[in-house]
Design brief:
single chain, mainly alpha, 5-stranded antiparallel sheet, two-stranded antiparallel sheet, 7 strands
Length: 708
């Protein structure tokens, strides 16, 4: 039966790039992604079936569709690893280099796959029935239903189209307000806001009402409790309170969030990640023991049975050694030779440890609940502690620690995805070696494109402003010592002044200064930037990147030791309190860190899921992940994210934004109306309700997703 064909690899690579780009967009916005395997499988089945009907070509086999979903799934896992680590480069005060992002993505992605291959027989075969692999099993059912007849991706494509049109009309054409908000007059500093995003609506539906409610609870605490408290008690405070850069009475709610709440949120996210790791310690210990015990039992390479044939062990070992050698000799670890050797060894040890843990936990609790962030935090903490003990605390070791953690994060994420895909292949009778080739191809192609996507999103939303309100009131202390130069918007050459930590009268950021040290421009990045309107009045989308901010916080905290630890401790204790109350500390902590506007549409999606589960069609256990509403929500996520990336591309094309901004011809009372913004958001929400209730794009519950 045809399996590893050129068409399967090509379609898998294309879908992997699309879902990888959308997952990166999602990771930057809310610090999370959703599994792409099922929507990729459904789209593969329909694409091949449509080509067969149109041109009379041979229909794709179930094994070819399995190769497509295996190849395509790599994009999402790599996007998560890159999205939660690499933006920290800018938060630490450096410029983001394309080569660094691509090397971390490529080396980490390939390393995770190679390290998973020796574990396949132990986890997938020997423990079949013990390790459930919920997403992998659901994907196998989708492939089986598609093979039996009639499965269609109409639902996914429709969701994609709805979200793409909506997002483009909102962000590019500016036909309605993106973040309606309402200031509570009776609560100083309290602002209700909701980002009318179909992407986040889809995320909320997929993660469900409980997690969505916990996330918005964290947002309510930050926006309607902590911010008003700081505004109230700071209203009579004189002077500047560290780490702010101006008196609290002069701060807006956004200023308070940027100066104080973000540190509280970062402390909460760090502690939530560690709590999730501690909770998983019994499973982690079992994973390590089982992996080491069963590793010797696994038969890899050269087996006679097709369904038990892996890539040769010699290729796996040689490939892993080459990758580690490439890491040690590259500029990813910008230190002397001893530091590079130690860094490469840590990647080898931590990589294999957490690939094993991730693969096992994916089988136990699924990829959506896999605490990759906690593993990355643990890697970063241990790496920084090793550097401190060795006396390596220079600026170059900040980048080295982040690069090590980034590679391990991508490897662990892709290792878990690989094990999930191999489980799907085991259930449908695929050839492991062919799947491993497919996911290697998908990882490499997605890793290359992810770097371009990240830099595109950052470039498009970077604001260079000359407004006095964003420029420091003092000059650079030693202008002659500033060696880096950059051309400003006016064409003149300026020196670059990087302020890593906020000072009195100077906010952290990158400034272009003249020879006397006077700041002329602020270069505000897309990642964790504070300026979302250009000097010409056009607005841009900023990315909060909660997990990346956490990585930067840990690196500075351990290596530099000059963070506002009081605020960080408050956030840590918030997570502890939530855990003691039986609430998911990590989900709540992410809600604290993100703006309330970002968690509100997720909450709406969760409410829709609760309503549809109560009054809509009932599905058998395991079929919920491939229901029409879940597939429609997946389409909303992909369509909205891809539209956002297209808008970003238009923003860097001269005149592109102005060309698409047809909303300028409409009355401002309409395009800036909060009521109009919320009314438009009701459209994708009601469509999702209709699909969830079985009133639109539906099929009988027993017939599989999208069958018609």
């Amino acid at each position: 039966m045809p399996e590893l064909t050129g068409s399967a690899i090509l379609v898998g690579v294309i879908l992997g790039i699309i879902f990888g780009a959308s997952s990166l967009y999602l990771a930057l916005r809310v610090g999370m992604t959703v599994s792409a395997s099922i929507p990729v499988a459904v789209m593969s089945i329909t694409l091949f079936r449509a080509l067969s009907n149109k041109f009379g070509l041979r229909r794709a086999t179930i094994l070819e569709n399995n190769i497509v979903q295996t190849t395509g799934s790599a994009g999402e896992s790599i996007a998560f690893g890159v999205g939660v680590t690499m933006p920290a480069v800018m938060i630490l005060g450096y410029d983001l280099e394309m080569t660094r992002v691509m090397l971390v993505a490529c080396l980490g992605g390939l390393l995770g796959i190679l390290m998973m291959i020796p574990l396949r027989r132990a986890f997938i075969v020997e423990q079949h029935g013990v390790l459930k692999y919920p997403e992998g099993t659901a994907c196998a059912k989708v492939l089986e239903v598609g093979e039996e007849g009639g499965a269609s991706a109409r639902t996914v494509f429709t969701g994609f189209g709805v979200a793409f049109f909506y997002q483009f009309a909102m962000q590019a054409a500016h036909l309605w307000k993106e973040v309606p908000n309402y200031a509570l007059g009776w609560l100083k500093g309290g602002v209700l806001a909701c980002e009318v995003s179909p992407t986040l609506l889809g995320v909320g539906y997929i993660i469900g009402p409980r997690v969505a409610s916990i996330m918005v609870g964290g947002g309510v605490l930050a926006a309607l409790v902590l911010t008003p408290m700081i505004a109230f008690f700071g209203s009579s405070a004189g002077g500047v309170i560290f780490p702010g850069n101006k008196p609290i009475p002069e701060m807006s709610p956004k200023d308070i969030r940027d100066a104080y709440i973000l540190y509280i949120g970062a402390g909460a996210v760090a502690t939530g990640g560690l709590i999730s790791m501690i909770q998983a310690l019994p499973l982690i210990g079992a994973s390590i023991r089982s992996g080491l015990r069963d590793l010797g039992k696994g038969k890899t390479g050269g087996t006679k049975e097709r369904t038990d044939r892996d890539l040769p062990m010699g290729f796996v070992i040689l490939g892993a050694l080459v990758l580690v050698g490439a890491i040690a000799t590259s500029h990813l670890i910008p230190t002397e030779l001893p530091g590079r050797i130690v860094g490469a060894l840590m990647i080898l040890v931590f990589g294999f440890l957490f690939v094993t843990v991730s693969s096992r936990l994916t089988g136990e609790i699924g990829s959506s609940s896999n605490p990759i962030s906690g593993m990355t935090v643990a890697t970063l903490l241990l790496t920084c502690l090793v550097f401190v003990l060795a006396g390596w605390v220079g600026a170059e070791y900040r980048l080295a620690a982040l690069s090590i953690a980034g590679i391990v994060c991508v490897a662990a994420s892709n290792g878990g995805t690989t094990s999930q895909d191999l489980k799907t292949g085991y259930l449908v009778g695929g050839t492991p070696a062919y799947q491993q080739i497919g996911i290697l191809a998908g990882a490499l192609s997605s890793a290359i494109v992810i770097g371009f996507t990240l830099l595109l999103l950052n470039t498009a939303s970077t604001v260079v402003t000359a407004k006095a309100e964003y420029l420091p009131k003092v000059s650079a202390p030693d202008p002659a010592a500033l060696n880096e130069t950059e051309t400003g918007p006016d064409g003149a050459s300026y020196k670059v002044w990087r302020v890593i930590k906020p000072q009195e009268g100077v906010a952290a950021g990158k400034y272009l200064v003249d020879d006397a040290g006077k700041a002329k421009y602020l270069v505000d990045p897309a990642i964790n930037g504070r300026v979302n309107v250009r000097d010409d009045g056009t607005s841009v989308v900023k990315f909060d990147a909660p997990k990346a901010s956490l990585m930067a916080l840990i690196i500075d905290g351990v290596l530099q030791g000059d963070l506002p630890w009081g605020l960080v401790a408050i956030g840590a204790l918030i997570s502890v309190v939530m855990h003691l109350c039986g609430v998911s500390a990590l989900a709540f902590a992410v809600g604290v860190y993100l703006p309330l506007a970002a968690s509100m549409p997720i909450f709406v999606g969760g409410l829709v899921r609760a309503f549809c589960d109560r009054f809509g069609p009932k599905y058998a256990e395991g079929e919920e992940d491939s229901s029409p509403a879940v597939l429609f929500a997946s389409g909303l996520i992909a369509g909205g994210a891809i539209a956002g990336i297209l808008v970003a591309l238009l923003a860097i094309v001269p005149g592109g934004s102005a060309l698409s901004a047809i909303g300028g011809i409409l009355p401002e009372s309409l395009t800036e109306s909060d009521v109009m913004g919320m009314a438009t958001f009701a459209v994708p929400t009601l469509l999702l309700v209709a699909v969830g209730l079985g009133r639109w794009l539906s099929a009988p519950a027993s017939s599989g997703p999208g069958e018609s």
